[in-house]
Amino acid sequence: MSASVQLATFVKTHPDAVGRLVDFNPMTDKLYQFDLTIGNKELDAVTIADHAKFGKWVNGKLEATGAKYGIGGYMENRNIYAHSPLFNNGDVKRRHHLGVDIWGKAGMPIYSPLKGKVHSFKDNNNLGDYGPTIILEHNLDGLILHSLYGHLSRASLENLKVGQKVIAGERIATLGDDNENGHWPPHLHFQLIFDMEGKSGDYPGVCSLEEKEKYRKNIPNPQLILQFPKAVNA
């Protein structure tokens, strides 16, 4: 049985073990499905490179649809990374997004959906990077799973300790603004990882086309945990 199947089985058989990630009521709140693929002609290079313009575009979509959050991104082929050297190393261009983004307002609370402990944390302070990042480790009936939370506020890292216990539904962080989150419009990068491969406080959230299938085996779809309803873009 693959690790992804084990995870899906755990969630199905332990529904009470999975808590919220953000404050979202599927009965009353709406989600907007963002399209950040290379095929979206609304996003030109100038808008993407200017985080204020990019933020205005994101907020405009949320306001126009009455959505509390925007969502999207798992294994999405994006064009928004071209402006940062972090994703462009010679002929290797990283464009495939490995997690899910939840677009909202700076300061919104972030919760751990599973019980576990703090694996590591770090301020990845580079243009286009995660900014403040927390990684938790979870033991799900013997299946080791890690959850990564990127683009947080710097205050989220204060007083953290490696090994610190976390319960499901516990508030662990708040969302950072564009001056501290890697210069992005406020959003949470949420990613699940089986094997951290020895990394601490950081793990790739974007890969090249050639690496996509390798990472897919190690990074399951976050929707297994989120279980969000289908977004309504109207």
TrEMBL record:
One of its GO terms (molecular function) is metalloendopeptidase activity. Gene3D superfamilies: Glucose Permease (Domain IIA). This is Murein DD-endopeptidase MepM/ murein hydrolase activator NlpD. InterPro entries: Cell_wall_metabolism_enzyme (IPR050570), Dup_hybrid_motif (IPR011055), M23ase_b-sheet_dom (IPR016047). It comes from Mucilaginibacter gotjawali. It comes from the Bacteria. Pfam families: Peptidase_M23. CDD domains: M23_peptidase. The keyword Transferase does not apply. The keyword Signal applies. Residues 96-193 form the M23ase beta-sheet core domain. Keywords: Hydrolase, Signal.
